Amino acid sequence: MIRILGERNSLFNQYIFELRDKEIQKDAMRFRKNLERLGEIFAYEISKELDYEEKSVQTPLGIADMKILKQNIVIASVLRAGLPMHTGLLNYFDRSENAFVTAYRKYHKDNSFDIKIGYLSSPSLENRYLILSDPMLATGSSLELAYRNILEKGTPIHTHFVTAIAAKEGVEYLQKKMGDTSYTLWIGVIDDELTAKSYIVPGLGDAGDLAFGTKI
User: Fold this and answer.
1) Residue 141's closest CA among 189, 98, 191, 176?
2) 162 and 133 in contact (C-beta within 8 Å)?
3) 132 vs 75: CA distance, rounded Å
């Protein structure tokens, strides 16, 4: 299943607009905040598809019967670019456990590259809902490899992949690789073009660098 939040008019697209704007991008704090806001909106939408249980709460004037979210969620993010959206997701799913995985491109002299996983920290995923976020879905290989590695910690009930901007090629790749996996792909917007170096066009640039500074 694919959910594309940017298809409908909402404040969500204002934040996408600001993330793309090369002048607004100069303010790293605002860039991080906008990714965090997207994470919060994604969390609210995802919450509509999770499991709930009935509980009674004592108010000053009586008892109210409510439906409360079952807290069996693990939020995972691909470092370092995924951290701001992770914060937004965690702001709403504030009782969730957390997982982190590093994925990076190791370039060769011909400008081709391999995706490498360098670090993984995660609780058990057995009988849990996994929310795995990465702000950019270019080729799809980084997110897919991160997902495969995190499965070392167990098999989730269902996985929610969350990304702000995706390339059509990356979406198709992920759909092909996931097969019969129980998952939902949550996307802000889909861009059509992917360059020879696997950068999304128009995209927004390098989300990790824009949020946390350039790396060497």
Assistant:
1) 176
2) yes
3) 6
In the Cβ-directed half-sphere of 160, how many Cα atoms lie within 13 Å?
24
For domain 2-212, which architecture applies? 3-Layer(aba) Sandwich (3.40)
- Dihedral in degrees, nearest 10, Cα atoms 193, 194, 200, 206: -160
Q: Which residue has the tokens 């995802």?
A: 46
Q: Are 47 and 69 within 8 A, CB to CB?
A: yes
Which residues 6+ apart lie within 8 Å of 1 measured at CB? 183, 184, 185
- Structure token pair of residue 105: 């491109």
Give the single-character DSSP code of 93. S
Which pLDDT tens digit goes with each residue over 37-58?
Answer: 999 999 999 999 999 999 999 9
Q: Which residue has the tokens 């670019």?
A: 81
Hey, where are the domains in the chain? 2-212
- Pairing of the two strands 97-107 and 113-121: antiparallel
Q: Supply the pTM of this predicted model.
A: 0.91
pLDDT given at position 118 = 72
Q: What tokens does 117 get?
A: 């996983």
Cβ–Cβ < 8 Å for 50, 129: yes
Average pLDDT over residues 162-189: 93
Q: Which two tokens stand for residue 125?
A: 């995923």
DSSP state of 152: G
Question: Tell me, what's the pLDDT at 157?
Answer: 94
